[in-house]
Amino acid sequence: DAKTTQPPSMDCAEGRAANLPCNHSTISGNEYVYWYRQIHSQGPQYIIHGLKNNETNEMASLIITEDRKSSTLILPHATLRDTAVYYCIVRPDNYGQNFVFGPGTRLSVLP
Amino acid sequence: GAVVSQHPSRVICKSGTSVKIECRSLDFQATTMFWYRQFPKQSLMLMATSNEGSKATYEQGVEKDKFLINHASLTLSTLTVTSAHPEDSSFYICSARDPGGNTEAFFGQGTRLTVV
After folding, report:
1. With A33 labelled, which of A3, A19, A22, B40 sits at a CA distance of 20 to 30 A?
2. Is B104–A34 a contact, with Cβ atoms under 8 angstroms apart?
3. What pLDDT is attached to residue A38?
4. In angstroms, rounded to a whole number, what is the distance separating the alpha carbons of residues B58 and B81?
5. Handedness of CA B107, A52, A64, A98 (dihedral sign)
6. Where residue B109 falls among pLDDT bands split at 50, 70, 90?
7. Which residue ranges of chain A lie beneath pLDDT 70?
8. Within an 8 Å CB–CB cutoff, is residue B109 touching chain A?
């Protein structure tokens, strides 16, 4: 079972920041927080991951609370192409372990 | 980043026939690959873990004789849906992780199977 809870859907205006929350109150000390997104009829695309520090890359920023029980994915300037289902996944750094997907958040970027 | 490629992206087959889906890691070797299935408006569900040189591990409720997995090389895993039925119509997705890279996994483009 997924160890995270996310809102089922969110809307965001084009050009504005999209802030997607994720609760992972039972996260263990060795588990990372990963974010993926899935655009319709495509495989999931890796966005970003972190352990306890905030992370930023060319796609997004990841803010993890100090107690690590929740996190927020930030898309700084959402475009229509960012419309997708966003999945927050917690998982230890174990090569042989799969990723468990919950229902995710369906983000709709509106013109 | 690392790339995982699936083929075909879309296939239509008749009931009772078999369909093979390929998953390749293009720039790394993967001793483990994962196969997922996704029904419309649902999330990805793990079907099986494919291990190079040994038998695949199937999740509960997934028939190993129906979904044959072969991981004969470090860059290729195949999923064969045998004696396909309309209820096998789904989106099949594979993933793999570069053991020499970071901790994230990479996913194939997915294969849309329609059984008629």
Report:
1. B40
2. yes
3. 97
4. 14
5. positive
6. very high
7. 1-2
8. yes
* B103, B109, B112, B113: best to mutate for the A interface, most A CBs within 10 A: B103
Is the model more confident about B1 or about B17? B17
Q: What are phi and psi of B87, to 5 degrees?
A: -70, -10
pLDDT of residue B2: 65
Task: Quickly count: other Cβ atoms within 10 Å of residue A43's Cβ.
Answer: 24
* Alpha-carbon torsion, ordered B53, B54, B57, B63, to 10 deg: 100
Residue contact B110–A93, C-beta within 8 A: no
Mean pLDDT of B97-108: 85
Whole-Å CA distances, B33 to A8, A23, B23, B29:
29, 28, 9, 10
